[in-house]
Amino acid sequence: MNFKILSTDINSRRGIIETKRGTINTPAFMPVGTIGTVKAMSTDELKEMGVEILLGNAYHLYLRPGHDVIAKLGGLHRFMNWDLPLLTDSGGFQVFSLAALRKIDKNGVHFRSHIDGSLHFIGPAEAMKIQGILNSEIAMTFDECIPYPSSYEYTSRSIELTTLWAKKCKEFQNNDQALFGIVQGGILKDLRKKSSEEIINIGFDGYAVGGLSVGEPKELMHEIIYFNAPLLPLEKPRYLMGIGDLGDIMKAVEAGFDMFDCVIPTRNARNGTLFTSSGKISIKREEFRSDSTVLDPDCNCYTCRNYTRGYLRHLFLSKEILSMRLNSIHNLFFYLNFFKNMRESIEKGTFREFKDRWDNIFQ
Amino acid sequence: MNFKILSTDINSRRGIIETKRGTINTPAFMPVGTIGTVKAMSTDELKEMGVEILLGNAYHLYLRPGHDVIAKLGGLHRFMNWDLPLLTDSGGFQVFSLAALRKIDKNGVHFRSHIDGSLHFIGPAEAMKIQGILNSEIAMTFDECIPYPSSYEYTSRSIELTTLWAKKCKEFQNNDQALFGIVQGGILKDLRKKSSEEIINIGFDGYAVGGLSVGEPKELMHEIIYFNAPLLPLEKPRYLMGIGDLGDIMKAVEAGFDMFDCVIPTRNARNGTLFTSSGKISIKREEFRSDSTVLDPDCNCYTCRNYTRGYLRHLFLSKEILSMRLNSIHNLFFYLNFFKNMRESIEKGTFREFKDRWDNIFQ
Fold first, then answer.
1. Were both Cys, which of A89, A90, A182, B108 would link to A127 (CB 3.0–4.6 Å)?
2. Nearest residue of chain A to residue B79 (CA atoms)
3. Buried b / exposed e across A256-278, counting CB within 10 Å, b at 16+?
4. How high is the pLDDT of residue A217?
5. What is the ipTM of this complex?
């Protein structure tokens, strides 16, 4: 994996990540393909709108269908019919947010599946083994994700564990697979600094900031975003995990982050909340009943090229599968296009104007 | 509308229906686009697999979003982004199978919506008006669909009403819209004969047989299929309504029917029952867990070109939307291909062999 910064605008960076399976333009948005599919979408549709990398969840795929099954079916790329780059998370976040009855020791976490209650164990060695079998281009270290609020003491002990696990992950790094380290530390700046230093000392191909957007006030999250970014090496990709609100993303890009993943565009789509160049709209509203205009006249997606707001409202109210399809296509296209324009603004040195304009619209 | 028979094989017919919006090869399968979408499918996908005509349901579209809304949105073709031919049913079948609290008089039916209980009235005049606004290429007369079993007396009075309504529909026939008459009469041969004669006397662009597959034993249904077909004019298209089991379809084609519609391929797809060249399979079965082969090696559909049985099983068990998409694509493609091969067998004079082969597979 190779990362190049092509241009900068103050702290925001416009770069490329090169992998054997393709190039990723940064700042990059990675749609989430939780259990082997980006919900409601085909991989052809994702390619066509310019998606360059997808995220797969090791925890979900480990439980269902099982990484052994995916191995037999030729690895995650073949399994889900996606031949461009994949990033897999380590399962850390899901073990701590979805699984029940966790018991943590220095080797990893015992937990019960959120699907059937069965007992499992994942630690750094297991997380690396699973991700090796999934055969993603970028793997993530296994970390402890603590809730908000957590005490200083607990957070302090937790980042020690995360550092210990990161070292183990590095030891078990798979051939031909980039590995990103994850910085934790909650909302405590000195612990964020300590965690950053420890993770950087181990040495990874890229660095991620985890443990945000877990319930803390937005202002605190923004503070940590701006605080943590400059603590990470300039020459490596910086990934802000799980943050997908466009306002938050612009702040993070301003701080110097390069990579993002989030279910917001697809989840909102399924709930009928659609992004447009004049703000978010709820497609179910009565005013759209006989509206023969397209969702967003400035949008060139498949949905906006072919369907009226009236039709989209009808599909949504009728709970048709096509509603989730057309809405997901539109929202993802909107995100991809937003990132493309954001990258161009960095190239032109107009990122600040870009950010001001969109902050106004999404306020 | 123009109908030509290109070749016959005993009583089976291979023909074309020409409309302003395109040609339909017969025997034709019409996927059902109940409320403005074939469930889980895009119209591009339907076109790509060779669908030449879709069915829309007047009853459903009248209730939701309302034909007034569809009028404002440019008619049903524009509404659902389908520029090839459409056939609309009249609403008769749904009024009698879905709606509550029906009160029938000679002008039509008072009923309550199955969605919100609101009161409505549809008769022949209303059915023609709705279908005119939907602007389909082929409209259907408004008929009474009686349940099985029904007494001789009730059936006899019912076909009188259906004849009366058919006359009214003919009076109100829309410009530039073909109109098909519907024959009723339950499983009573003399009443089927009487209804056929009366409907033919009025004179329509095509003739449909309705009121079958409403609970009667299969043997009785087959008897009526073989009995009713030759009572209809040779030179007009013959449409067997709502019958979609492939075994039944082959019998009906053998009897001389030309057009079919059914939700079987899409509904089965959503339930995980998939058609293959060696029979039906349930994709959820344990044996497919790590199966790296494609669904049907003889199939060239998008699903079979790109995905393994193991992946399809995983998507189905995970209740992913993509499961319904890929399964619907496959089953519809299978049906379209089945009809294509059936048409070729009629051209070659080998329909009997075609039928024997498939009867064996689907037994």
1. A90
2. A311
3. bbbbbbbbbbbebbbebbbbbee
4. 97
5. 0.97
By residue count, chain B amounts to 363
Place of tokens 């199955």: B114
Helices (H), chain A: 43-48, 58-63, 67-72, 75-80, 92-97, 124-134, 152-171, 189-202, 218-228, 246-255, 264-270, 302-306, 309-317, 321-348, 351-361
A321 with B318: Cβ contact below 8 A:
no
| DSSP codes joined into one string, A256-320 | T--EEE-SHHHHHHHTTEEEETTEEEETT-GGGTT--S-S-TT--SHHHHH--HHHHHHHHHTT-
**For residue range B305-345, what is the model confidence (pLDDT) as tens digits?**
999 999 999 999 999 999 999 999 999 999 999 999 999 99
Query: Is B64 in contact with A35 (Cβ distance < 8 A)?
Result: no
**First-residue to last-residue Cα distance in chain A:** 38
d(CA A115, CA A296): 39
Whether omega for the bond prior to residue A85 falls within 30 degrees of 0, making it cis, is: no
Q: How far is CA B87 from CA A211, B93, B340, in A?
A: 56, 15, 20
The two structure tokens encoding residue B163: 């004849």
Considering the entire predicted model, what is its pTM? 0.97
Q: What is the DSSP letter of B231?
A: G
CB contact under 8 A, A310 and B40: no
Return the C-alpha torsion angle B252, B256, B258, B261, nearest 10.
-20
* Chain centre distance of CA B15: 18
Calpha distance B19→B33 (Å, rounded): 19
Strand partners for B118: none
The letter for the amino acid at B264 is: I
Compute how many other C-beta atoms are within 10 angstroms of the C-beta atom of residue A285. Answer: 12
Instruction: Flag whether residue A125 sits within 8 Å of chain B, measured between CB atoms.
Output: no
The minimal CB distance from A310 to the residues B73, B317, B322 is found for: B73
